[in-house]
Amino acid sequence: MKHIVNIAHGREPDTDPRSLRAHVQDREKRVLRDTYYLISQNDGPSERLSCGHTTVYPTGSTTGHSHADMEEIYYFISGEGIMVVGEDEFPVKAGDCLYVPPGEFHTTYQSGILPLVIFWTTCKVDDCGVATVEDTR
Predict the structure, then answer these.
(1) How far is the C-alpha of 52 from the C-alpha of 113, rounded, in Å?
(2) Contacts of 2 by beta carbon, 8 Å cutoff, 6+ apart
(3) Contact at 8 Å (CB) between 65 and 106?
(4) pLDDT higher than threshold 60 for residue 133
(5) Is the pLDDT of residue 64 over 80?
(6) Full-model pTM
(7) 32-53 residue pLDDT tens
(8) Dist CA 44 CA 128 (whole Å)
(9) Do the Cβ atoms of 114 and 8 come closer than 8 Å?
């Protein structure tokens, strides 16, 4: 007999009181994530680019923010969630890539049973909304 099961589809997490979900289910704030800056324009070699890795844990979200002087790309490595950009909501999952224009409020909610893992990158834009690179020749 052949049998295949996918943890992300059709499986419910346990309800054990020792689980992460049990410890965080009645919290006031929904934010439950870890972010690591890999390259930062503040302390790295790039003047315009930053990138990082964020894990949003079950039942959690990111803080939500906007940045008028940066555009951003999110690449979803694993898990499932909802990405809110401005007034729009997008279901996201591993393999999806989403663009966030400068000035748009955005936040991400984990909605599956696995942590939502994201690689993101930002780029500063000039006053016209166009990224520029100085000629160093």
Answers:
(1) 23
(2) none
(3) yes
(4) no
(5) yes
(6) 0.82
(7) 899 999 998 888 888 899 999 9
(8) 25
(9) yes
**CA atoms of 11 and 13, how far apart (whole Å):** 7
Per-residue CA distances from 115 to 43, 68, 96, 110 (Å): 28, 29, 15, 7
The pLDDT of residue 128? 55
Q: Which residues contact 17 (CB under 8 A, 6 or more apart)?
A: none
Segment 76-83 mean pLDDT:
97
Is the four-CA dihedral 113, 111, 15, 11 of positive or negative sign?
Answer: negative
* Rounded CA separation 106/93 (Å): 16
The chain-wide mean pLDDT, for the chain, equals 88
How far is residue 91 from each of residues 83, 88, 104, 111, 119, measured CA to CA in Å?
6, 10, 17, 9, 16
d(CA 17, CA 126): 51
